[in-house]
Design brief:
It is elongated, with a radius of gyration of 16 Å. Helices cover 67% and strands 0% of the residues. With 107 residues, it is mostly helical.
């Protein structure tokens, strides 16, 4: 087990087994590959779709299919955020410059 994995046990411990494998594999990526993940964003189309479904959900007018889509979009966004956070953590561990929280791009 790498020192980084030992330093971030809660992040890995709380992730699903599949996500643990994916996050651990990120330790082998180059800094450029990690920066690409760290700076990735949800597409504009996906953001708009998510927002519309959230609004319909507040009005309690979601169909079952829309509810499933909203759940899927939330999971994808959560996964992306976890991957981004882990990429930044690895980069920081490698002494790469990491922006301040306020300077990070929104998802």
């Amino acid at each position: 087990m790498s020192k980084l994995t030992q330093d971030l046990p809660l992040l890995l411990k709380n992730a699903s087994p599949q996500m643990q494998v994916e996050l651990t594999a990120m330790l082998e990526l180059s800094d450029d590959e990690l920066l690409k993940i760290a700076n990735s964003q949800v597409s504009v189309v996906q953001q708009e779709q998510h927002q519309k479904l959230l609004e319909k959900n507040q009005l309690a007018t979601l169909s079952e299919r829309e509810h499933e889509k909203l759940t899927d979009l939330r999971r994808k966004t959560d996964k992306l955020m976890l991957r981004k956070a882990y990429a930044w953590a690895i980069l920081k561990y490698r002494d790469c410059p990491v922006p301040q929280l306020d300077d990070l791009p929104e998802i």
